[in-house]
Specification:
mainly alpha
């Protein structure tokens, strides 16, 4: 009975949160969203992150998320360089930019099987047209499935499902929109990370990995 009452309380709180939810940008407010700037920037980031993740995934078997880096870059270009206060444009940029990473991940973890089959003589080696069509159909299937699932997983489950990566992207965009110390913290973090990476991998002044060997231990840490 206690567990049931707790569950009912949580359901009631979730219902209250959903009914009291107000979007950051009101529906009646008209602001730039799908513009030439956001589409062009999104395509450029999609190509860059897609190529980077394709190389990384084929090299080490894993990819990195492009959503948060794309959000930071879009915020920096649109707000800082272009002096435009448009969070919806930045949102479109990070959405389109992250699509390149998702598409690359879907391709590199499936298409190599075709090349392995071709090497074994099961089939012919796939050409560029076949690879393009497979990636295109895979991307369209993702969009088609997400259209009906958006209402079920995002709208109806608001404040129920955490979506940590999406929440982090939203906080980055909100920090840039609010400006001041919040935006300064984001850009300071970018600067320190870039300097740290340059010192380790560029100048190689400090080793990126440190290991210790022990005489009585068969291995190292």
């Amino acid at each position: 009975m206690i567990k049931l009452s707790v569950i009912k309380k949580q359901i009631g709180e979730n219902m209250d949160n959903k009914s009291n939810f107000k979007p950051y940008i009101p529906a009646e407010k008209v602001t730039p969203e799908i513009t030439v700037t956001s589409i062009v920037m999104g395509i450029i980031l999609a190509v860059v992150f897609g190529a980077a993740n394709a190389y990384l995934g084929l090299r080490v078997g894993m990819t990195v998320s492009a959503s948060i880096p794309a959000a930071v870059i879009s915020m920096g270009v649109i707000r800082v360089l272009m002096r435009k206060n448009s969070i919806l444009e930045s949102h479109i940029v990070q959405t389109v930019g992250s699509a390149g990473e998702s598409l690359a991940a879907g391709a590199i973890f499936t298409l190599p099987a075709l090349f392995l089959w071709a090497k074994e003589g099961v089939m012919d080696k796939p050409g560029i047209v076949e690879i393009t069509l497979i990636a295109l159909i895979g991307g369209l299937l993702g969009v088609f499935f997400m259209v009906p699932l958006r209402n079920a997983l995002i709208v109806k489950e608001h404040n129920t499902l955490p979506y940590p990566e999406g929440t982090a992207c939203a906080e980055v965009l909100l920090a840039g929109e609010e400006g001041g110390a919040n935006a300064g913290t984001v850009f300071a973090g970018m600067g320190f990370a870039a300097i740290f990476k340059f010192i380790i991998d560029g100048l190689k002044a400090v080793p990126s990995e440190v290991s210790l060997k022990f005489k009585n231990f068969a291995g190292e840490i």
